[in-house]
Amino acid sequence: MTVALLGAGVMGEALLAGILQGRPASDLLVGEKRPERAAELTERYGVEVVGNAEAVRRAGTVLLVVKPHDVGPLLDEVAAEARPGQLFVSLAAGITTAFVESRLPAGVAVVRVMPNTPALVGEGMAAISPGTHSGDEQLREAEELLRSTGRVTRVPESQQDAVTAVSGSGPAYVFYVAESMIEGGVHLGLTRATATELVVQTLAGSAALLRDSGEHPTVLRERVTSPGGTTAAALRQLEDGKVRADFLAALEAARDRSRALSSGEPA
Ligand SMILES: NC(=O)C1=CN([C@@H]2O[C@H](COP(=O)(O)OP(=O)(O)OC[C@H]3O[C@@H](n4cnc5c(N)ncnc54)[C@H](O)[C@@H]3O)[C@@H](O)[C@H]2O)C=CC1
Ligand SMILES: O=C(O)[C@@H]1CCC=N1
User: Fold this and answer.
1) Which residue owns the Cα nearest ligand 2 atom 1?
2) Most CB contacts within 10 A, which of 34, 84, 114, 130?
3) Assigned architecture for domain 170-262
């Protein structure tokens, strides 16, 4: 079955590359506004780039991977080609299934997804939610497409703003911690190259240990923290700085911003 991917930027390319690992390029149609980007993708992946309306006409499943404020105009552009039996999968932050359904003919199935950028290296985390006309078959189709970029879980749509705050924006928090630790190493006299190598492998190793051991992070942190030692000294400083409370407030801010996008506030 043909899949149309509309909007091939950062997230669109991650999805495109993942899908092509399991399906031939002839199964995929791409709609992309920027001609130079379209040419780049054709050269890199051998995919056919066509107009959005043509892509929707020829596809069974349509992936919407444009920025949230571009979703409405894009749906208006392609709605005449949409038909019941098709599946529309939206990856746009804060765009509800009700919004997408309201712009398409009655009976078109809609699934909402919140992905994240580690999808670029096959280590993504995506949460999916069904709209009014989506059943298990449509959820399984969306799951299969997303699984090519990492893990997939199902959540009620009411939790998507929280998911966006945790795993959608989450990689940015981790990169922020990485930047801060590298800067810390440089302050202690390490070269930037050495500090970067130490931090990147420490984060990758810690993430692998957390996932593969199945242990709670508290247990893993306690194993690093010798009584009266260096880690205890550092953690005390983080507690004094209220870093944990800041994380709670930061995730609330991201959740609230996702809610605001849902109610149509401008970007
Ligand atoms: N970047 C991230 O970490 C995440 C992004 N998302 C969502 O994914 C969506 C895409 O985000 P990015 O890939 O980061 O944005 P991006 O700006 O890199 O890509 C959007 C692409 O859509 C194209 N486009 C815009 N209007 C179009 C139209 N009418 N027809 C065809 N192509 C069109 C643009 O030229 C661009 O290549 C957004 O809705 C965002 O909320 C969700 C989770 C994480
Ligand atoms: O910052 C954003 O709005 C998007 C959604 C989650 C990650 N990036």
Assistant:
1) 169
2) 114
3) Orthogonal Bundle (1.10)
- CA-proximal residue: ligand 2, atom 7 (nearest): 169
What CATH code is assigned to 3-156?
Answer: 3.40.50.720
116 labelled ligand-binding: no
Nearest ligand to the CA atom of 33? 1
- Sequence ranges of the domains in the chain: 3-156, 170-262
Neighbour tally for 247: CB within 10 Å:
11
Q: How far is the CA of 180 from the centre of ligand 1 (A)?
A: 28
Q: 96-115 pLDDT, tens per residue?
A: 999 999 999 999 999 999 99
Whole-model pTM? 0.93
Q: What is the pLDDT of residues 141-160, one digit of tens each?
A: 999 999 999 999 999 999 99
Helix (H, G, I), strand (E, B) or coil at 109: strand
By residue count, the chain amounts to 267
Distance 182 CA to ligand 1 centre (A): 30
Please check whether residue 127 is in contact with residue 155, taking contact to mean a CB–CB distance below 8 angstroms: yes
Confidence of residue 262 (pLDDT cuts 50, 70, 90): confident
Three-class DSSP category at 153:
strand
